[in-house]
Specification:
The structure holds two protein chains of two kinds. Chain A is of the alpha/beta class. Helices cover about 40% and strands about 10% of the residues of chain A. In chain A, the strands form two sheets. Chain A has a five-stranded mixed β-sheet, with helices on one face. Helix content of chain B is about 45%, strand content about 10%. Classes of the chains: A alpha/beta, B alpha+beta.
Chain lengths: ~425, ~160
């Protein structure tokens, strides 16, 4: 790989004219990958190439994408669906929004290829309701693709037919969870389903369904163009191919969406080199490394390679690659209250441990911050968190428990100071 | 019975729905798009409109209300002409969103969740909008306003008042 091909997306971001079909065709090898796939590859060969690419899902769970596609039953007589998760709701994450705004045709081409691979003829993009303008931009790009015969019946004369429909959500974090999303797509409350059956067996409209994140799908044309092996080599660490889009926010000088080859940088390098360091010359206190549900790290822990497994080894996670940087002046107890309030608000209410537990955690933290807590309340808080994690239908319970457990573990003295009355709510 | 057949939703609504029908294997999947479209016409979702959506989809009104009430973007009460939703989630909070909310409450003379007496503004708190790298951010009706500060928010509110 030459030096200038180390990013796959970022060079096309931030310029409105890049989103057009014309730019995609002339400057980005647009629809060449789909042409190759439809003209010369079998669905199995496509899945094999994606497996070779070592691409992990970019939505948060990091599940190998090729494997996910291979779970779709080949002999099922039912229609099959590819559903793109554009709900992007994990706090801190705003990368998919840039793909939709600046490189929507990468997503559309990825959907064509993915649909062919799993035998789908109607793909849905479930986009969060707040992305009104992004949904408009995506619909405009889809219309361009239909007009040129890249979508619809007999795509590029291949005999393959594919439609894409953009479906807007309406404001619910839980619809980022894939089965909550599918219920929402079907016109129901976005409550997660009992699994099994998994979506690969019974997903959208009770048919076999693959749900993939925007960035995952938008990488597929790159995988076909470069070849799975070359794509895998972009990753500088085992089991993670390609690049990662990183949403860097909070107390940095230059917040933004950046792109790095997977595993090529440490968390500290990302903060310093991309983010220009902590703002206002302040010292780093903590980092939330993978969206607000990921366990917080202290400033001493940021020399970790920023990828799935190194982060897992130190007890946290990469999630959706949303890094939130926290400076020395931040009150960690109040910040945790804010995070917990979010999960309490977003709990769908189906599972008792999450519905009740999130509110108890919020209420305990409220008491701590307002000087009304009793000495045992911090331990009670951690105990409640321990009784949510792993005991619910979906990962929202864990998402709510992990910040509580990690904040208290790493910044216990700040919680103690509140309870002992050494610190009070200003 | 005349009330029941009276239409509240426009031809445009029914045309839009007709265009979407072939795109889904089950009509119930049109519930969210229908509620969006209906809200576009009314600014919120009055009881009669929910009933008409139910009739169109072919389900009980309670089912439509059950779905509508799950999602924060469907307004089950009237809202002002300009609905400001300030994000106060982590990334925005780290960059001063609390101060913005306080300022907006003072400036508009309402508490978060309320509408100004002239019906011009509704002020709400929003969970993460996905504009974390351009925080703090808010939604102003369908548009994002990003990299906000108190001065910018003040100007925005003044502009809306001026253009009313």
């Amino acid at each position: 790989m030459s030096a200038e091909t180390k990013t796959l997306f970022a060079q096309h971001f931030w310029k409105d004219s890049n989103r057009t079909l014309e730019h995609y065709l002339t400057a980005m090898n647009g629809y060449e990958s789909a042409k190759k796939v439809l003209g010369s590859m079998t669905p199995d060969q496509v899945i094999e190439e994606v497996k070779k690419a070592n691409i992990r899902g970019r939505g948060g769970a990091g599940f190998p994408m090729g494997m996910k596609w291979s779970f779709i039953p080949k002999n099922s007589q039912k229609p099959k669906y590819l559903v793109c998760n554009a709900d992007e709701s994990e706090p801190g994450t705003c990368k998919d929004r840039q793909i939709i705004r600046y490189t929507p045709h990468l997503l559309i081409e990825g959907l064509i290829i993915g649909s062919y691979a799993i035998g789908c003829h109607h793909a849905y993009v479930y986009i969060r309701g707040e992305y009104v303008r992004e949904a408009e931009l995506l619909n405009a790009a889809i219309a361009e693709a239909y007009a040129k015969g890249f979508l619809g019946k007999n795509v590029m004369g291949s005999g393959f037919s594919i439609d894409i429909t953009v479906h807007r959500g309406a404001g619910a974090y839980i619809c980022g969870e894939e089965t909550g999303l599918l219920n929402s797509l079907e016109g129901k409350r976005g409550e997660p389903r009992v699994k099994p059956p998994f979506p690969a067996v019974s997903g959208a409209f009770s048919c076999p369904t693959a749900v993939n994140n925007v960035e995952s799908i938008a990488n597929v044309p790159h995988i076909i163009r470069l070849g799975g092996e070359e794509f895998a080599k972009l990753g500088k660490i085992d089991k993670s191919g390609g690049t990662r889009l990183i949403s860097l926010s909070g107390h940095v000088n230059k917040p933004g969406v950046y792109e790095a080859q997977a595993g090529s940088m440490t968390l500290r390098q990302i903060i310093d080199e991309f983010g220009g360091g902590v703002w206002k010359g302040k010292k780093l206190k903590a980092v939330i490394p993978g969206g607000s549900s990921s366990p917080v790290l202290t400033a001493e822990e940021v020399d970790v390679v920023y990828d799935v497994e190194p982060l897992m080894k130190i007890g946290t996670m990469m999630g959706s690659a949303a890094i939130m940087v926290i400076d020395e002046d931040t009150d960690m107890v109040k910040l945790l209250l804010r995070i917990t309030k979010f999960y309490a608000h977003e709990s769908c209410g189906q599972c008792t441990p999450c519905r009740e537990g999130c509110h108890w955690m919020e209420s305990l933290l409220h008491k701590i911050v307002h000087g009304e807590a009793k000495p045992g309340d911090i331990d009670l808080l951690v105990d409640v968190a321990g009784n949510i994690g792993g005991k619910t239908l979906c990962a929202l319970g864990d998402a709510a428990a992990m910040p509580v457990q990690s904040f208290v573990k790493r910044f216990r003295s700040e919680f103690d100071a509140y309870v002992k009355g050494q610190k009070s709510h200003a | 019975m005349t009330e029941k057949t009276e239409k509240h939703l426009s031809e445009k609504f029914y045309d839009a729905m007709k265009g979407l029908e072939p795109r889904y294997p089950d009509k119930k999947a049109l519930i969210l798009p229908a509620l969006h479209q209906a809200q576009k016409e009314y600014g919120w979702l009055p009881k009669e409109v929910l009933a008409e959506v139910a009739q169109y989809i072919g389900v009980h009104e309670a089912q439509i209300r059950e779905v509508a009430s799950f999602y924060t973007m469907y307004n089950l009460k009237p809202v002002g002409k300009m609905h400001l939703k300030i994000c106060t989630n982590v990334a925005c909070c780290l960059r001063g969103a609390d101060g913005l909310m306080e300022f907006a409450e003072k400036k508009l003379g309402v508490r978060c969740g309320e509408t100004t007496p002239d019906g011009l503004f509704t002020l709400s708190e929003e969970e993460c909008l996905g504009a974390c790298t351009t925080a703090p951010a808010m939604m102003a009706n369908d548009d994002y306003v990003e990299n906000l500060d108190i001065q910018g928010l003040n100007q925005f509110i003044e502009k809306v008042k001026h253009e009313r």
